[in-house]
């Protein structure tokens, strides 16, 4: 669905040096980026501010022409065949609107139907389904300018789906939304990917979006790919330890546990946080604990996704 190889984009920026002199400098926003996304995948494209995410997205959607490299989306060169691509993909920019500000939401959708020449029956059924799932019915006749951010974002997502795209590209779709709106949108997108098989590529700073939606992550920093893989694999790679939290029936000291590298004791010896390596199974640690004390409750804690991504950035 997406093929990117040695993709590069440079910008020339002019900065003032001293009182009269200006200096031209080339900024390489995307520097030999490569990755592929297969049909049906949901991939998170993450990186710190200025990493090159939006620039990549703009090249994938044909808004920006690459300085060099290879890019194909749905088999076409986005910059050369932008119009054709627009009929096959949906794009949502959290910070920019594709809706007509003064028109009711319904009229914006109608206009987009005409732009994309969506057959009336397809349009009606897609609109009905999206509006129901995203609970937008009560707002269809409200001018876009009067919608809350959460309502508008749901509107943006509907607008991007009216022509039934194979791929949906989202740049910061949950930015500024409250927790409930975020959750509703994530649920909708997860269903879209699972039930419809729509491919998703999204950039976000909210790693809960990734946890909820994207089994795979492509991490970029300073224009280059730092890591690309399944979230679980990246977790195992950069965070080679997990924590077993055990609550004992009675306070006890635990000694000689297999694979346990460090421990922290709380509640006067009742709760133990045992950090163990991935070479050991949780079952082995648990049975060694159970041989020494009576266990009341336990949980295995994986490192948080924020921690995984922070460690990936730090590797640089
Ligand atoms: N039109 C432009 N002209 C000059 N420099 C630009 C332009 N667009 C982006 N850049 C620079 O390219 C780099 C990458 O920017 P980009 O917007 O792609 O990052 P990002 O990962 O999307 O960041 P953020 O998370 O802050 O949105 C930055 O250093 C930015 O200043």
Automatic annotation (TrEMBL):
PANTHER family: ABC TRANSPORTER ATP-BINDING PROTEIN, ABC-TRANSPORT PROTEIN, ATP-BINDING COMPONENT. InterPro entries: AAA+_ATPase, ABC_transporter-like_ATP-bd, ABC_transporter_ATP-binding, DrrA1/2-like_C, P-loop_NTPase. GO terms for molecular function: ATP binding; ATP hydrolysis activity. Its main location: membrane. GO terms for biological process: response to antibiotic. Residues 2-247 form the ABC transporter domain. This is ABC-2 type transport system ATP-binding protein. It is a peripheral membrane protein. One of its GO terms (cellular component) is plasma membrane. It is found in: Cell membrane. The keyword Plastid does not apply. Keywords: Antibiotic resistance, ATP-binding, Nucleotide-binding, Transport. Pfam families: ABC_tran (PF00005), DrrA1-3_C (PF13732). PROSITE patterns: ABC_TRANSPORTER_2 (PS50893). SUPFAM superfamilies: P-loop containing nucleoside triphosphate hydrolases.
